[in-house]
Amino acid sequence: MPGPSLDTLSVLFVWTAVAIYTLAFVAYAVDLARRSDLAVKAKDAVGARVLVTVGGSTSDVAPDALDVAPADRPRYLWARIGTALTVLAFLFHLGATALRGIEAGRVPWSNNYEFALTGTLLIVAVYLGVLFRYDLRFLGSFITGMTAVFLGGAALNYYVVVTPLADPLKSVWLVIHVFVASLATAFFALAFALSVLQLMQARRERLAGEASRRTGPRFLRTLPDADALESLAYRFAIIGFIFWTFTLIAGAIWANDAWGRYWGFDTKEVWTFVVWVLYAGYIHARATRGWRGSRSAWLSIVGFSAVIFNFTIVNQFFKGLHAYSGLS
Amino acid sequence: MSNSRSDVADGPLRPADHADAPDRGIAQPKLGVVGWLRWGWRQLTSMRTALVLLLLLAIAAVPGSLVPQRGADPNGVSQYLTDHPDLFPVLDAMQLFDVYASAWFSAIYILLFTSLIGCVIPRTKHHWAALKARPPRTPARLSRLDDHHRVVVDVPADLGAASAAAAAVDAAAEQLRAAGYRVERYDRAGSASVSAERGYLRETGNLVFHSALVGVLLAVGIGGGFTYTGQTVIQEGDGFVNSLALGYTSFTPGRFVDTEGLTPYSVTLDRFEVTYTPLGEAGQGQAGDFGAHVMTRLPGEEPQEEVIRVNHPLTMAGDRIYLMGNGYAPTVTVRDPDGEVVFRETIEFLPQDSNMTSQGVIKVADGLADQLGLVGFFYPTAATLHSGAITSGYPALLNPLMTLWVYAGDLGIDDGTARNVYALDPTGMTQLAGGDSDTPSLELAPGETVDLPAGMGTITFEDATAAGAAEPVARYVSLSVHRDVSAPWVLGFAVLALTGLLAALFVPRRRMWVKATVGDDGLTIEYAGLARGEDPAIAPAVAALARDHGAALARLGATARTPDPEVD
């Protein structure tokens, strides 16, 4: 083949994207640190009046509202740099994924390397898409950090050259089932990040209520309160749950064509089921007295950990019919 | 909650520990037997129990992915027994090789579904009544609700205050009805109000989702009794008949399957096609485009040509026939020292790797001085490793070679013991060639004949092209035949569950009230909303109601005294 192949270019784009995501991560991290400064300065200025609540507009450290139109948001410089870098990295990432698909002549999600490529792309896409509606830039460092690690890790450990598709994968369900599963993962990732922040925020609120001197990371003061974080985490989780349910059904239809049964407790099926039940538990917990709040947040965290486990460990090391990681 | 009407109006019936259920406190009278049963039932159907059971189910499912399961991976279970002979009986006693049929796993999901049914039935009754009920009476003090707007308007003098209040509420009722609310007027002296409710579909969806899950479970459970799966292996040129006695190497019927009543269709393998990624390309030797070209025949009908492919099973008389595997089936002829044919068979060799290195066993029971057992390796593209061992470098027939170890003695098949045709038990046999014996193993290419050791005769690896075949070695396919009457039902219930879930999670259920009170200096209009369940958009919805109603008031000639509605 004359010149570098599209796949070579794709890999170059992947590493470019990883580099820019890392810069975006740094910018977002600086943003959180500066928000901390802002919170401290404002605290000094306001004096004793420190405990701010939602809607309290007297203090400069009033937590930013989630549901603010992009034009009306606080103009945090470093957050804006972070978002701009994320968009740039996303474009390289998108290019890398598209080139890989063109080189392979099929959808770019047929082995672990490509799952990682597309999965992280969707996480960033959903994050950037959600930014139009909610000001979630405080999640930027988490999203870009995680994407940089997963993408770089996948390029190092999961990379395989383009090979023809194995017969069982030659199905329209490859396009649908895997894509929707990745999309579900993207929403679960956002829910996970919000749940983590919710726990941190709940802890801060508890400590502040006890008039404790130490209340954890200071940037939390500029974030919405724990209830708002929880409510948004829940909204992302239920969207993810719908997609995950669809993934299960689509996978069963495909399995019935490819393997002769719609359900057989293959290891990957087991883990997909476990994830589904965990999130069903999360949704239940949100409606159970005594479980709303921090306890349910833990379930969201456990659920996402299972998703990641399912993608990495189960794909790579567990024996089963979903042997499409492309790794040996 | 004394009268049933207000009880219904209280919204969906919830388990007592539901976050939206009223907190009834703990005032438990002394319990009798019935009381305890009621108490136990209430515990089982509580949210907390359901939650714990869900989490237990998730945890209980995990071991089945760590330990091989008899259902999904029977060979893995045998291997586990070989690798861990001491641990195996312990795990087996804990049913860890049949997790999903185990007593403990079943106990969890049966309890979970009992809890679910116990929750769904009363909720369905309750919801049925709610669907027929009218929206509840307007609360006396709307200002106590979280989402509340109040505005004072001046009404035109020619319009009396009372009739202005009625007109304002009429307009609000119309507006709410157009937005899909069910509305009810509650007018009193000095005030008019409308009470509205929407989103009954949320509870309907919730109940449909949970009921559909029960449907899935029942379909799987009952359908399993009418399901059968059978495996068969056919070589090119051969066929199989769908009959328990004739066709199958293994057959697993459900409890209610009439094994005598199978439709006796036949499937004959004309040829098996496969392409391999060429040498030198990425993924070389990777097999694909598998196609079993078959001739099918239903009783009393003309034969039909069909192709069975991966992802595209063949449907015959309600059965689905899947292509599960393929391999080479060399034909071998054994002659005695006089040149008489004592054995001729085409034997399926089982593939051992992706380059189709295959292993097979030849058992010659009669006609020679001793019973003969041969363990053969077949290499479609034989290549010699540095160590001297032979391997296959490519899955197609580029350089086919068969090597054979020869054992003589007692095959152990005369006493009627069932023996695996794919394995040889060399106990009581003497190795004459290959392995630890002094004679090297026999090596044959298609068309070649070599002498058996100890002058027992000769063995020939037949070249199938001599008989007109396209390739020197025949292929075989393994097919799996399934009848699963439950699958469409399971799918139907699953789709129903997903539909219900969408409604249950995304349809907001909310109540709205608009109340106009005649005051000394104008008309006070209040708007209030109450979310019933998760409803992130309740506040904007109340604001939108107030805004749109403001426009309607302006058309009536009323003017708001404060320019913007005051937000509490």
Description:
The complex is a heterodimer of chains A (328) and B (568). Chain A is an all-alpha fold and 328 residues long. Chain A has one domain (6-317). Chain A has eight helices and no strands. Chain A has helices at 6-46, 77-104, 112-131, 140-157, 172-209, 226-258, 267-286, 294-317. In chain A, 52% of the residues are buried. Chain B has 568 residues and is α+β, with helices and mostly antiparallel strands. Chain B folds into four domains: 4-132, no CATH class; 142-199 and 508-567, Double Stranded RNA Binding Domain (2-Layer Sandwich); 228-324 and 478-483, no CATH class; 331-461, no CATH class. Chain B has helices at residues 4-9, 33-44, 47-61, 63-66, 74-83, 87-93, 103-132, 161-178, 200-223, 487-506, 538-556, and strands at 147-154, 182-185, 191-198, 228-235, 239-241, 250-253, 266-276, 287-297, 304-308, 314-316, 319-329, 331-335, 341-346, 350-351, 358-364, 371-379, 382-384, 390-392, 401-409, 429-433, 442-444, 449-451, 458-461, 474-483, 510-519, 522-531, 559-560, 566-567. In chain B, the strands form six sheets. In chain B, strands 1, 2, 3, 25, 26, 27 and 28 form a seven-stranded antiparallel beta sheet that branches. In chain B, strands 14, 15, 16, 19, 20 and 21 form a six-stranded antiparallel beta sheet that branches. A five-stranded antiparallel beta sheet of chain B has the order 6-4-24-11-10, with no helix packed on it. In chain B, helix 3 (47-61) packs antiparallel against helix 7, helix 7 packs antiparallel against helix 9 and helix 9 (200-223) packs antiparallel against helix 10 (487-506). The longest helix of chain B is centred in the first third of the chain and has 30 residues, at 103-132. Chain B is elongated and about 125 Å long. Chains A and B meet through helix 6 and helix 7 of A and helix 3, strand 8, strand 11 and helix 10 of B.
